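assembly run, all chains below
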Amino acid sequence: MSSTTNPSTHHTSTIGAIGAPSRRNTELALLVFAVLIPVFAYANVGLAINDEVPAGLLSYGFGLGLLAGVGHLVVRKFAPYADPLMLPLATLLNGLGLVAIWRLDQSELLQDIEQAGTAAPRQLMYTAMGIALFVAVMIFLKDHRVLQRYTYISMLGALFLLLLPLVPGLGKNIYGAKIWIQVGSFSIQPGEFAKIVLAIFFAGYLMVKRDALALASRRFMGLYLPRGRDLGPILVVWIVSILILVFETDLGTSLLFFGMFVIMLYVATERTSWIVFGLMMSAVGAVGVASFEPHIQQRVDAWLDPMKEYTLSRAGVTGHSEQAMQALWAFGSGGTLGTGWGQGHSELIRFAANSDFILATFGEELGLAGLMAVLLLYALIVERGVRTALAARDPFGKLLAIGLSGAFALQVFVVAGGVMGLIPLTGMTMPFLAYGGSSVIANWALIGILLRISDTARRPAPAAPASPDAEMTQVVRP
Amino acid sequence: MNKPLRRIAIFCGLLVLTLLIRDNWLQYVQADELKEDEHNRRVAIERYASPRGDIIVDGKAITGHATTKGDFKYKRTYKDGAMWAPVTGYVSQAFGATQLEAIDDGILTGNDDRLFFRNTLDMITGKKREGGNVVTTLNSAAQKAAYDGLKKQGAKGAVVAIEPSTGKILSMASYPSYDPTVIAGSNDAAGEAWNKLQKKNNPDDPMLNRALREIYPPGSTFKVVTAAAALEHDLYGSADEKTDSPLPWTMPGTTTELKNEGNLPCEDATLREALRVSCNTVFGKVGYDLGNDKMLETAKKFGFTEEQFVPVRSSASVFSDDMNDSQVALSSIGQYNTAATPLQMAMVTSAIANNGTLMKPYMVDALQAPNLDTIEKTDPEEMSKPLSADNAQILQSMMETVVKDGTGTNAQIDGVTVGGKTGTAQHGENNSKNPYAWFISYAKTDDGSSPVAVAVVIEDENAVRDDISGGGLAAPIAKNVMEAVIDSKK
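ok done. output:
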């Protein structure tokens, strides 16, 4: 970008493009903290529970440090201008999640649930796989615009992933939500991967269609109404979301995909009417499905009156769960400063204490202060993602970055809001914190793609483009 | 494209802000409410997280603690649990707490407000929270004598012994009893044991504290209350003046003759003689002559009609206030509606032995902090004065005659003056059920003070009716309890 000769083109970038420092050393310094903080937390858990520094401290610290180091070196080599904050933030959350999972592994009460006591080593393995995928993205994805070529393959891929849990014999129903598949001894949540693939499809599709969707519209009551035939795509995505809701009975996944599409549609077309349409369609879909789907109804009931749900569950009535109330008690018992690592009783949540409900452990043991810090870490990742979208020079990169960041933000909101009783519970997990291979691996890939986009955005331009309006000339049609 | 991007950024910011506000609501505004919610298991976990303080008798703990599996760390154990159960009650991880364990729970767990400053200091210095102790007034030798006596009879019953000069409860036994240790945990075994102890599964109802919570018709032992009323209301001036007592005596308003147990010399008998042989006609007539109001007044002064708190609650003993003449007569010999807890009859005896002054009965001498500092000490307290010292001494001499050469000879102790009264209370339709055997007594030392007053009741559904009499079944237990107290003072 020729900012020195034509300052007016600065509108696409909030980060200076020419001579921008790579900030790799900043990233390294932050990474040191991102590794040390979980190591101290790990020691803290051991001291609280067993009165001794845990034996695995060195190997754990070394493992996390090694993974972070590999990530850093790869970024330094293959994406030197990438955002310096995202890798440390993801490492910190991942490390803290490992500590919380290990802490719950120690609980006697949770010894009867699946993979009891061994979740932390497994999660470390998943983390290694996640970092491996991250490294692969860094090395093999030289330019995110390559992804544009796979727009329609991505669509098919996303549909395939979303439909997988419905395949008989492969899909697995865990506590009512059918968003899992079983491969050998591994449970995989294809929705986590579909999130990324779908974002690629939406970005590619909308980049091509944005003009048609944005310009051909009629004005009605202050809103630009799209033409009937332009409503097609949003209707298709809406119907797919409703189908997910009906057949996989998962409100979270459904909301996430539809929300992501609406956000990207709005950014692509700059038409507020899409937001209004999107909200209306979400409301109609959610209320419509909730009126006949018992699993969703139960989630809503548990949200409206968790104490009643607890009482029913205690009385042995099937189809009720005390988890929602147990989570609220965990948060309340943590208070302002929390009980300290290892000294809470979030294991009372039992099933999914270390996955969907892991935030309750943070709430109880680190208190309001610690949980707000964790939420702000997520906010920072989202902020860096949005900043990457702003800095990106090509519309595809912008759309992809905002799609991924927006989906990330929605996921954090839907999960944290669900666990904290703000909205009905859904079957999704906190990115990086929660136990679960699919989630960790997919989110590391997500960070990888965002870093790639930010590297491209912040990289000093090798030569001035022919036209000052870089945005319009970089459109590459698939 | 950047304008909508910035708006989406604001939207994401709002999402996070909503979460932060919700978090503050949960963990700040609602925190205490959630934290102290009775259904929140953390409340119970905290409760059993440290060893509970002990209940002390004669300087020794009759309780202990054991570690348990699961998230409740400590559970209560009891030494001679069955013997002490009426005193301690129980505390169970699964079934809560009762009686002393419940009343002084704050001290025993260390949560009491009076320990707040100490707890705060401990928190700063990193010391673990501990429970304080409850020091009781009980006498272990007397308790053992009482419980073993009941156990030997193998019949349901209860014993209460009180130190008349202070109101200290020295013994409180109930039989059949139960060992609270078996229900202290929260495992299946505890649940099974609990079910076995419930009244619906166990007709003996071992968890009933008969000393405090069962009311029995007191039968002839109530005659000492009637005698006290006669002296206090000046119906008769002394133990040895002739009473106006015809034999046979038809109860006013009825055609029914009030019967004595056998052919007794009850016509115009003195109060002393009437008490010695236990004349129904004399005391029935006394009650009729005094009337409902005066009888009730005296009975109330002894503690009837009120629940007592020692500090464990006892049932209220009964003397009705709306009876006709014949009902008053029957009530005055401990029948009709009249009913008393063993504690109540021990209180009657102790008031007489303490020269007419009834001391408020209590069984917690002191509450101790974990470091054994006394937090609260119970001082003896006068509850009422049912009769004058002179009248009390007249009544004492009458009761001593009963033991010396009346129905209560089984309670005689060498070298000790003993006063007592037997009772054989009839109950059921037409007195069809087996009677209760009562014995109340006190011992008096050479200086005229009384170290112990005791009430014993035995209900025996299996015994032959004639075999049951206060003197035969209950008096030997009373004697052993009194001896145990006297021996322990030497």
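Confidence is low (pLDDT under 50) at residues 1-17 of chain A.

Residues 21-473 of chain A form one domain.

not gonna interpret more than that til we talk
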